[in-house]
Amino acid sequence: MMDYVNAFLVGGLICALIQILMDRTKLMPGRIMVLLVCSGVVLGALNIYPPLVEFAGAGASVPLLGFGNVLWKGVKEAVDNEGFIGIFMGGFTSSAVGISAALIFGYMASLIFKPKMKN
């Protein structure tokens, strides 16, 4: 039960902080998304994010910070195994399943709910 509480609290805190950032600054949502992914990479490289993922589970791994951390782990592993070329391969191989799932489920949802363009 505490795993759910930890995930809820950490994920909620991340979302609340990002909402405050969106409300208090003039940053566009795209720039905030890039900032989150890059922050996840930096926190992963500094070995700060993995203990947070261990503590909070999906509350830390699902937000965009977690995506940046996955990219970092993939690049680090690929560089260790493949050398310099791993810089270019690692992010793709580590995130391919998540990106593919998002595309497939997004497409399926569009078939079910018939989205409309904004006017």
Q: Which keywords apply here?
A:
single chain, 119 residues, mainly alpha, 6 helices, 83% helix, 0% strand, globular
Concise synopsis of the structure shown:
With 119 residues, this protein is mainly alpha-helical. The chain has helices at residues 2-24, 29-45, 49-56, 58-61, 64-82, 86-113.
The termini sit apart by: 45 Å
Average residue pLDDT: 89
User: What structural class should be given to the helix and strand makeup?
Assistant: mainly alpha
Q: How would you describe the oligomerization state of the chains in this entry?
A: single chain
Beta-strand percent range:
under 5%
Count the beta strands. Answer: 0
Work out the helicity level: over 70%
Number of domain modules? 1
Topology readout:
Elements: H1 2-24, H2 29-45, H3 49-56, H4 58-61, H5 64-82, H6 86-113
